[in-house]
Amino acid sequence: MLNNGNFMSYFEIIGGKKLNGEIEVKGAKNAALKAVAAALLSKEKWTITNFPFIEDTNRILEMIEDLGVKVVRRKNKVEIEARTIKKNNLDEDLTKKLRASIILAGPMLARTGRVEMYHPGGCVIGKRPIDMFLDGFKKMGAKLKQREDEFVLSAEGLGGARIFFPKISVTGTETMMMTAVLAKGETILENAAMEPEIPMLAEFLNKCGAKIRGAGTPAIRIKGVKKIGGGKLDLIPDRIETGTFAILGALAGGKIRIKKCNPDHIRALLVNLEKAGVRIKEKKKELTVEGTEKLRPVNLTTHEYPGFATDLQPPFTLLMTQAKGTSLIHDSIFDGRLMFTEALNLMGANVIMNDPHRVTVNGPAKLHGRKIASPDLRAGITLVMAGLIAKGKTRIENIYQIDRGYEKIEERLKKLGADIRRIEK
Ligand code: EPZ
Fold this sequence. Notes:
Layout: E1 10-14, E2 19-24, H1 29-38, E3 45-49, H2 55-66, E4 70-73, E5 77-81, H3 92-97, H4 105-112, E6 114-118, H5 131-139, E7 143-147, E8 150-154, E9 162-164, H6 170-180, E10 186-190, H7 197-207, E11 211-213, E12 219-223, E13 231-234, H8 239-252, E14 253-259, H9 267-275, E15 280-283, E16 286-290, E17 300-301, H10 313-320, E18 325-330, H11 341-346, E19 350-355, E20 358-363, E21 371-373, H12 377-389, E22 393-397, H13 400-403, H14 409-414, E23 419-423
Parallel strand pairs: 2-14, 3-13, 9-10, 17-18, 21-22
Antiparallel strand pairs: 1-22, 1-23, 3-5, 4-5, 6-8, 7-8, 10-12, 11-12, 14-16, 15-16, 18-20, 19-20
Helix pairs in contact: 1-2, 1-7, 4-6, 6-7, 8-12
The structure holds ligand EPZ.
């Protein structure tokens, strides 16, 4: 039964409560999705621990089960055994729900020589092209047939290739890296992404028998092998959850202790929070953040890792609406990632859109609650945070978007003292 999430439920929030206490970070969504896809490369069992059960990971697990792959879900881990892959077409409905479904095309091609799929859907944060994926597969010897938004990739065995990414792409890098594991000969990826999820995956693939060097740098070399084995992969903590909760602490703390995280993975955020006057105490696997009324404005440009993550721009922009002065926020990665500021303005913020990539934020602005819908998952959590600091009641619709990336979020926020309820319609 495909649980496609309840699209009619909403969150009801009464703002103004100070938040105190501890919150544990879950395993990284954007590591889990790629690990599930990479598991198709092996015929042996992969056990993935610290696994977040959220809508996006539910969807990708449903997609591989639909292909006949064995999936066993346990408390916070999943076991995957792709002994056989029974079909070559990816479920259309699931593909359109999950932008990251494009990642499956690589391992499918490498294992079976053919994949039929639709252009992936996902977020509203801007056109999500897949030209670099298709170019990469063709360079490795695949043939592409396209009809409207459906395409078929086929290959009599993939060959290593030299692939230069015209734009740095996280999933592009991960997909070509995992696909090259089973391609004949050497593949070189240049201008590759360096997000922490990439070396994590490479290290595990090497434990299973792959030959990958340079993951986490702009140049990755992969020597193809005939097959890879199985093993146990413990996912790194979700750095976007970590950063989101750190900003929440600055906005609505009292004092919030963020546990099971890796502060090194959000260094760019921590540096900017200090610049904004936020007091943070750091330990190896935890952060303590205190709320502050005296926030200073900070100008920010997002950048590929290790720069400031675009996924943390929406919560940081909200933070700047509470700073005393003017901040310039530039999201250099996506076209649509600042659209949510219109909703913040409806709540009383003062944000001017200079162009689709740049806004000017004037603060501090007193926010008041209202009914709004979450456009995508990172803007969605930001609107929840806005409701938590706004005066009065906020109702947030379309919370499937938030459930895509944050496991049981209202329960975890309630534990910090938030007045938030999920209303199932
Ligand atoms: C990954 O998306 C993340 N998703 C995104 O997180 C994150 O915002 C993004 O990286 C940037 O950090 C996953 O890992 C599943 P890109 P991805 O390819 O890989 C352009 C979240 O909230 N591009 O790095 O899809 C693209 O339009 C999500 O968890 C092409 O032009 O992003 C963008 O401008 C949202 N052609 C730029 O590259 C392509 O073929 C970077 O995108 C592919 C991408």
